[in-house]
Amino acid sequence: MRYEVDFLVIGSGIAGLSYALKVAPYGKVCVLCKGNAEEGSTRYAQGGIAAVMYDSDSFDKHIHDTLVAGDGICDREVVEMTIREAPDRIKELVQYGVEFDRHGSGGRFDLHREGGHSEFRILHHKDNTGAEIERGLLEAARQHPNIEIKERQFAIDIITQHHLGQRVTKHTPDIECYGVYALDCDTNRIDTYLAKITLLATGGMGNVYSTTTTPVISTGDGVAMVHRARGVLRDLEFMQFHPTSLYNPAEKPAFLITEAMRGAGAILKDRDGKEFMQKYDTRLSLAPRDIVARAIDNEMKISGKDYLYLDARSIGKKQLIEGFPTIYAKCLSIGIDITRDMIPIRPAAHYQCGGILVNRDGEASIHNLYAAGECACTGLHGGNRLASNSLLEAVVYAHNAAMSSIQKVQNYNNQVLSRHHEVPDWNAEGMVLNEEMVLITQTKKELQEIMWNYVGIVRSDLRLQRAFDRLNLIFRETEDLYNRSVLTEPLSELRNLIACAYLIIKMARARRENVGLHYSIDLLRN
Asked: What was the pLDDT predicted at 486?
């Protein structure tokens, strides 16, 4: 099947839906969802969205906190723009129907504080903020007559001049995006979606690691597609590991224990119940995530244990139950009463700070292609994302991308539009259905263990080389399978994860300084 729209959106989280709602008055919008529309990283965000809302705080403080967390390599102009736009974007979310907690009926916003923040500035909805944002935006999008939401549609590849028979390399000038090929997961048919403007809002790549807080659909699809299309990517060595996921090895993804709990007074402790963060940072349990994650990793290695503790008992029973109901219920379901027991925790892969390089309008290096949310690299996060800046970045860059896209559609190049008719449909001739799913599942597990063991919180030249060598074998085996098999979602995800792992390793090997989330014991010695 062939479909033509004005705006094509890949992903239905905060970035994709915010963008769709803003461009919808100017043309036909199609939102492709890999799974169900509600499923994605946004709904799993517990803590909230950072913004300066009152005079007790200031833009300068938020800017300073962001720059410090980013370890000196943020784009300062991007940081200032994003943070100064925050209040307006928050007001828009409220207008779309998102409800943030307030003091009393219609009162001031109830603000949390998280690691790396000097003030209370985190807007939230109890401890399930992302789910509330997703609910509000999705309801608004479903009511808009110009927005069509299509579920279980897995974007496979960006369509460029390559598909018209032209040779495209990373040095090819003026690469153009005409849309995407997408797998209908219910019919196993690969459809052609053509669009004047395409936005990638595909989320992260957390499942490149064996332990992650990200949903199972976070397999780096957008980054991998841009990599294959010869677009520009940056800073993928900066993978953020959240310090506190619930230790429950049988569960995937790992359940997140929000940083807001530490902001409310919870303290990190070792297996003997003793505090240890004073050995690593004066900010103690509220130090930035890279510092806290490395500290926990080191304490686990010293003790030889698989987990440490987060002690939230001092917060008080009433505040724990009312302020963190999701965490309270989750822990209780596995026999942990957080009002009486310490919470077993360990770090987990959580957020990619790099991604598809975009300018301040959210434009990628490929013409007519935009990216927003976790899959994009804007320069805001630098070497390490400040807590709760991700939802803010997503909504700010969705807005900027929408404003730029509207202008571009109104002045669209008819010559580019004529090329849509030249785009061929997907060719699956000669392919056979591979029945050996075990090859895919086992290779995926092997890849995730390689990345966790060798390209994790602490790295070394030897570990990176070992990971690269083993990945090379996995890549060759998987490409051979891909070249003779009917395309399926698991096979496509595996290829994307391998591409993302390669990019993380490549950029980590090229980074010859310890900065932010990239930490090598070899660089420490130099």
From this structure: 84
Provide the mean pLDDT of the chain: 93
Total residues found in the chain within this entry? 526
Per-residue pLDDT at 526: 47
Q: How far apart are CA 379 and CA 44, in angstroms?
A: 24
Give the torsion through C-alpha atoms of 10, 14, 19, 24, to 10 deg. 90
DSSP conformation class of 9: E
* DSSP 8-state code for residue 420: G
Cα separation of 66 and 378, whole Å?
Answer: 13
What is the spatial distance between Cα 122 and Cα 240, in angstroms, rounded to a whole number? 19
Chain segment 161-212, per-residue pLDDT in tens = 999 889 888 888 899 999 999 999 999 999 999 999 999 999 999 999 999 9
Question: What is the three-class DSSP state of 366?
Answer: coil
Query: Helical H runs in 105-220?
Result: 129-143
**Helices vs. strands in the chain: H and E counts, helices first:** 16, 17
Q: Which residues pair with 109 in a beta bridge?
A: 102
Q: Omega of the bond prior to 253 within 30 degrees of 0, cis? A: yes
283 is catalytic: no
In whole angstroms, give the CA distance from residue 463 to residue 183.
36
Residues 308-330: tens digit of each pLDDT: 999 999 998 999 999 899 999 99
Closest CA to 393 of 375, 405, 406, 411: 375
Asked which of 11-25, 242-256, 432-446 is least confident by mean pLDDT, the reply is 432-446
Q: Which residue among 43, 89, 121, 289 is the active-site one?
A: 289
Percent of residues in the chain assigned helix, strand, coil, to nearest 5? 40, 20, 40
Helix H or strand E segment including 197: strand 189-200
The answer to whether 372 and 363 have CB atoms below 8 angstroms apart is no
Q: How far apart are CA 65 and CA 79, in angstroms?
A: 10
50: Cβ contacts below 8 Å, ≥ 6 apart:
62, 86, 114, 117, 121, 122, 123, 386, 387, 388, 389, 391, 392
Query: Checking phi first, is residue 388 left (phi over 0); if not, alpha (psi -120 to 50) or beta?
Result: left
